Amino acid sequence: MKILYRSTRGKTKETVSASSAILQGLSPDGGLYVPTSIPKITFPLDDLPNFSYQELAYQILKLFFSDFTETELRSCITKAYGKNFDTPKIAPMSYYEGLGFLELFHGPTIAFKDVALQLLPHLMSVAASKKSEKKETVILTATSGDTGKAALAGFANVPHTKIIVFYPKHGVSFIQERQMLTQQGKNTFIFGVDGNFDDAQTRVKKIFNDTLLENDLAKNGYRFSSANSINIGRLFPQVVYYFYAYSQLLKDHKIKPYEKVNFSVPTGNFGNILAGYYAKKMGLPVNKLLCASNKNNVLTKFFNTGLYDRKRPFYVTSSPSMDILISSNLERLLFYLTKEDPQKTSTFMKQLEEEGNYTITSQMRSQLKSFYANFASEDKTAAEIDRFFSKDKIALDPHTAVASYVARSFQDTTEDEHFTIVVSTASPYKFAQAVLVGLHDPNAFIPGLEAVTALQGKIHIPLPPTISRLFDSPIRAKKEIKPHEMERTVKKVLGLN
Ligand SMILES: *Cc1c(COP(=O)(O)O)cnc(C)c1O
């Protein structure tokens, strides 16, 4: 059966093709696109170890992107997962202290968002070629740090695209900001916003929902799209590495075929872990998905009480890519918890927007048994980095440390014995200062790139080229704006008035 897409808030049963959903990003009614049904994998699990990452990507993604031909999809995959990653495995596993670490930081920006964002521009370009109207695609992205650089790297100089990135000017690390400000490409535009990530994301959503502006754009030959993890072109490529992790565990004789495993996922916008949920629904033997949060633990509360409440203080932490109070992709989970009821899903989302919170029913809560949720405070995160370094001489980035702390506390409190995989989302070099804090290094308080050098001296992992380039690439002038100036800024970039 061919899979189509409908909106989590769709009042009609209207559906669109995968390529339309990829080009639009968000549904016109403000909802997120979900597949009309969740496909099951078409190969036996025992076959997994025979697949390369690229072959596995094809086997999974052909089920979701059903209006792409085999040639189109394979060509996108080949372009996305090649020499731009520093290992042919793309997402290798390592093992410490009885845990598996799925390393998703071997792409050009040394963080997990590369896995999806190296593919998305190619998917969009094929999707656009299927439409008769020739429009330039404008990617609009609010980023808590990593998405920005990864999207810029993916879209830079891709023909018929422009990319505009907004980041919270005090909410990203020095390295993240420098990575963005050294981005090349005439079609790339970057702005620091005087607010937090949610301020920027809310505005971007408003711009997407502005039909007047949309008409104006259409007249001028533009179409907005999103590179955020709400786009199905980002979400589903993330399903692949859950299966790939399992295949490596089989190869490495850590588990037997069909044995269930846990994944601990450092969570912000709920995209990564949602991909794990889809993998489970497709037939991957998953016991629990551990939703790991930092001090902004709005999701921990949600899973443990049923109350989602964004009216709480916002903290800037050592794991900034998880500093989020509104996890956009959670809407898709709500949709499934309501038994795919767009009316009910809309009501919850409306309540979140107007009152700042909602509580799910006990019937909905009873369907959350495959999740466990916990968080790591800043102290626990730093202690986890220190502990791993002293014991195993490996340096965890703070996001990964949050997930490994949550994995261990899950094992300690539940005595669960399933093999547990910590999803490692960034290289320690990307968050050098936070890692040095964890390691009690006196250099933790020296600014910027010197922290990277200090960390290198300590952990003896070669500096990835993407980081060494930051030392000598030209830097763009910083452009800073207020949240209410975002729409005007977009118009200016596109030459509209
Ligand atoms: C984006 C990001 C996360 C959070 O992933 P979500 O899909 O937003 O939940 C975690 N760690 C790192 C390093 C990230 O860049």
From TrEMBL:
GO terms for molecular function: threonine synthase activity. It comes from the Bacteria. The modification N6-(pyridoxal phosphate)lysine is found at K113. NCBIfam families: thrC (TIGR00260). InterPro entries: Thr_synth_N, Thr_synth_N_sf, Thr_synthase-like, TrpB-like_PALP, TrpB-like_PALP_sf. Its cofactor is pyridoxal 5'-phosphate. Signal peptide: none annotated. Keywords: Pyridoxal phosphate. PANTHER family: THREONINE SYNTHASE-LIKE 1. One of its GO terms (biological process) is threonine biosynthetic process. Transmembrane segments: none annotated. This is Threonine synthase. It is an enzyme of class 4 (lyase). Residues 5-81 form the Threonine synthase N-terminal domain. Belongs to the threonine synthase family. The keyword Cytoplasm does not apply. Its EC number is 4.2.3.1. CDD domains: Thr-synth_2 (cd01560). GO terms for cellular component: cytoplasm. It holds the Pfam family PALP. Residues 103-407 form the Tryptophan synthase beta chain-like PALP domain.
